[in-house]
Amino acid sequence: MVNLFKGYEAATDKEFVSYIHLKKYEYKEGGSINAEKLMYYAENQHMEMVRAKEWTTPTKENQEILALSAEI
Fold first, then answer.
1. What are the tens digits of pLDDT across the range 24-41?
2. Which of 42, 70, 38, 37 is nearest to 55 (CA)?
3. Domain residue limits, the chain
4. DSSP assignment, residue 19?
5. From the CB of residue 5, how many other CB atoms can be counted at a distance below 10 Å?
6. Could you give the maximum distance between any two Cα atoms of the chain, in Å?
7. pLDDT tens digits, residue range 4-16?
């Protein structure tokens, strides 16, 4: 489980990583989550974010930085 959490937390999408942190908290609190369930939840979350075109979208801060860089 530790390696799964480490792998998922290395993702570049902050919203996805936040979701994984919630699952990690659930695991630490003794929730009924195991490796299979974690992989299932992570895959579903990823697919849902890709379908909604939310995967690795820039944050507002990054969008502002990109806009400022484009002006320069």
1. 999 999 988 999 999 999
2. 42
3. 2-71
4. H
5. 17
6. 52
7. 999 999 998 889 9
